[in-house]
Automatic annotation (TrEMBL), chain A:
Any matching Pfam family: BPD_transp_1_N
Alphabetically ordered keywords of this record: Cell membrane, Membrane, Transmembrane, Transmembrane helix, Transport
Record has Membrane as a keyword: yes
The keyword Phosphoprotein belongs to this UniProt entry's keyword annotation: no
Primary localization: membrane
Gene source species: Alpinimonas psychrophila
Source domain of life: Bacteria
Transmembrane spans: 12-30, 101-122, 134-155, 175-194, 229-255, 275-301
The protein's name: Oligopeptide transport system permease protein
Record family assignment: Belongs to the binding-protein-dependent transport system permease family.
Automatic annotation (TrEMBL), chain B:
Any GO CC annotation of this UniProt entry: plasma membrane
Protein name: Oligopeptide transport system permease protein
Keywords: Cell membrane, Membrane, Transmembrane, Transmembrane helix, Transport
UniProt-listed InterPro entries: BP-dependent_transpt_permease (IPR050366), MetI-like (IPR000515), MetI-like_sf (IPR035906), OppC_N (IPR025966)
Protein species of origin: Alpinimonas psychrophila
Gene3D superfamilies named in the record: MetI-like
Mode of membrane association: Multi-pass membrane protein
ABC transmembrane type-1 domain segment(s): 107-298
Keyword Cell membrane: yes
Pfam families: BPD_transp_1, OppC_N
Keyword Membrane applies: yes
Transmembrane spans: 46-66, 111-134, 146-166, 172-191, 222-244, 280-305
Top-level taxonomic group: Bacteria
Length: 309, 313
């Protein structure tokens, strides 16, 4: 177990530096001189320009700049947004809202996805199964902003059941509809994954043994089939986290939810390059950490991973 | 007949020879692709999605066949957000342009982005996956880590950054590169796993034994036998790329508004959701139906190519 954790941690190091380097490089390659741009239509004052370059380390070679930036990240300094507010401060104030939205979405995804997938897998080829498959294909091909707009239009405006946009404090009850929207894309994947996994597990010898021992089918499904089918679903949730972040950006933008996603959404819409990059970096780092944690959880769930190789 | 007392000759049908004799050489040859083709031809989903894909391709190539109304000229502000009238079946946009005509003329943009991204992801994915899986060792270690780095950045977020950087150079090639550059690692991973499985097969060892070069083995024997999952993932990535282009346009970092694309139309219609939902719903519908047909096609191919899925049915 310890060897596995160590190996996994070591693998994460080059990926962390690689991703941050890649993002930083893309921004560095951005055309135009930011210091000159600050002067606008006025003439460039060389002395002030030189001072600004020194202040923001722009006179240093690229690689030094990168390490100064990485050093800042380790100290929790993700840079400053376009309006001058530290990104870390914005994160602290917006993160709780996004966390609430993500909790609703993940809860719905897990409960609906696993339940429907399990029933589908157990009743393979029946009407329920085939209609679920068709519905899941449609859900996968619907872009999240289309789902969000249609939900806003039909439920928010035409039927008037909920407010079309969320109010400033973003209470739980107003986040239910955006949460459903956010959950729709991934729920289809979870249904399909659970179904495949259940069908696979159901054909295993230990399930046949359980049946021949005379266990009730309820117990077999709960203890023998479901638990063994959930491992691929758990790994998927980590990969899915990336989809969830992009989805949250779109959903929070459309429903006007004051979370991390909307901040990024507005920065993108207004073309605030540096703010976009800071937020994308934060999201990528969160994504890396979540994937690392899931891999460790995965090892705890499945002894074959721990002792393999 | 003199020999019959000394030797017993078993009747032909009891010997293994009978099995050899029973092979009908003139029968249709069978392999994975032929089996898959036969399987696909029996499924209604194949015809439905195939029909839509051909239709979408025709619309992209020959928009003039489907509408006579110009998409950009002839826009009258009198018609702003107008309801459908004769000759304009889906109504008008905020600028007073014909919604149907803009959808027809936007098809080629969406499809081009999808195709370029797919070629890019398939190319890079096959290159990285094949070399990493087949040559293994240090090459695998390096290529797989590079793949991990690109995989760790969700490709829409990466594309947002790239498109923000190239804000003044946005065109179809740049947006395709922005999506494709970060979308290939999943293809590479799938192919690498498949090659690891295939490369220990007996026929590979046989080729090595008769002195075929390593590269030739990879190209002639290993790759053709492990390409099936890549075909599936490629069909799906076409759908994903079309959706990604629309998402980027929706976020305002897609193609400039001078390009007609479904994403741009959706993006421009979002502020009029309350007054003129048709300007938003119809381009979204075109986008969804196109994506759905590619995803359905991918599903059909996956079921046809995967013997496990075939046996499970």
């Amino acid at each position: 177990m310890f060897g596995y954790i160590l190996r996994r941690l070591l693998q994460a190091i080059p990926v962390f530096f690689g991703t941050t380097f890649l993002i930083y490089f893309m921004v560095f390659a951005m055309p135009g001189d930011p210091v000159v741009a600050l002067f606008g239509q006025h003439g460039v004052n060389e002395a002030v320009a030189a001072q600004l370059r020194a202040q923001y380390h722009l006179d240093q070679p690229f690689i030094i700049q990168y390490f100064i930036y990485i050093g800042g990240i380790f100290r929790g300094d993700f840079g400053v947004s376009f309006s001058g507010q530290p990104v870390s401060e914005i994160l602290l104030s917006t993160f709780p809202v996004t966390l609430r939205l993500a909790t609703i979405a993940l809860f719905l995804e897990m409960v609906l996805g696993i339940t429907i997938g399990l029933i589908s897998g157990l009743r393979k080829g029946k009407l329920f199964d085939s209609s679920t498959l068709v519905v899941s294909l449609i859900l996968i091909s619907l872009p999240i902003f289309v789902i969000a707009f249609v939900a806003q239009l039909v439920i928010g405006i035409n039927l008037g059941w909920v407010r079309p946009t969320v109010s400033g404090t973003a209470p739980w009850n107003e986040l239910i509809l955006p949460g459903i929207v956010l959950a729709t894309v991934s729920v289809a994947y979870i249904i399909r994954l659970t179904r495949e996994s259940v069908i696979e597990t159901r054909g295993q010898d230990f399930v046949r043994t359980a049946y021949s021992k005379g266990l009730t089918s309820g117990r077999i499904v709960r203890v023998h089939i479901l638990r063994n089918s959930l491992i691929p679903v758990v790994t998927f949730l980590a990969v899915d986290f990336g989809v969830l972040m992009v989805g949250a950006t779109v959903t929070e933008g459309i429903f006007n939810i004051p979370g991390v996603g909307r901040t990024l959404y507005q920065a993108i819409i207004r073309g605030e390059g540096p703010t976009v990059v800071s937020f994308v970096t934060v999201m990528v780092i969160i994504y890396l950490v979540v994937n690392l944690l899931t891999d460790l959880l995965y090892a705890a769930l499945d002894p074959r991973i721990r002792y393999g190789k | 007949m003199a020999n019959s007392s000394n030797h017993y000759v078993a009747p032909l049908d009891e010997t293994p020879l009978a099995e050899v004799d029973s092979v009908n050489i003139s029968a249709q040859a069978s392999n994975l692709w032929l089996d898959a083709w036969r399987d696909m031809r029996g499924r209604p989903m194949f015809y439905i999605s195939g029909f839509i894909i051909i239709l979408v391709a025709l619309v992209a190539l020959f928009p003039g066949w489907f509408t006579q109304v110009p998409p950009n000229n002839d826009c009258l502000l009198v018609n702003s957000n107008g309801a459908p009238i004769t000759g304009h079946p889906l109504g008008f946009t905020k600028q007073g342009c014909d919604v149907y005509s803009r959808i027809i003329h936007g098809t080629s943009t969406s499809l081009s982005v999808g195709i370029i991204v797919t070629i890019l992801t398939a190319g890079l994915g096959v290159l990285f996956g094949a070399f990493a899986g087949f040559y293994g060792r240090w090459l695998d270690a390096i290529l797989s880590r590079v793949g991990d780095i690109f995989f760790a950045i969700p490709y829409i977020l990466a594309a947002v950054v790239i498109m923000s950087v190239f804000s003044s150079y946005r065109n179809i090639i740049i947006i395709s590169l922005a999506i494709g550059l970060f979308a290939w690692p999943s293809t590479a991973r799938v192919l690498r796993a498949e090659i690891l499985r295939v490369k220990n097969a007996d026929f590979v060892m046989a080729s090595t034994a008769i002195g075929v070069s390593r590269f030739k083995i990879l190209m002639r024997h290993v790759l053709p036998n492990s390409i099936a999952p890549v075909i599936v993932i490629t069909t799906l990535s076409l759908a994903a790329a079309i959706v990604a282009e629309a998402t980027l346009s929706f976020l305002g970092v897609g193609l400039p508004t001078s390009f007609m694309s479904w994403g741009n139309d959706i993006s421009q219609a979002q502020s009029d959701l309350r007054n003129a939902p048709q300007t938003l719903i119809y381009p979204s519908l075109a986008l969804t139906i196109t994506a759905l047909s590619f995803i359905m096609m991918g599903e059909v191919i996956r079921n046809a190519l995967d013997p496990k899925a075939r046996a499970r049915r």
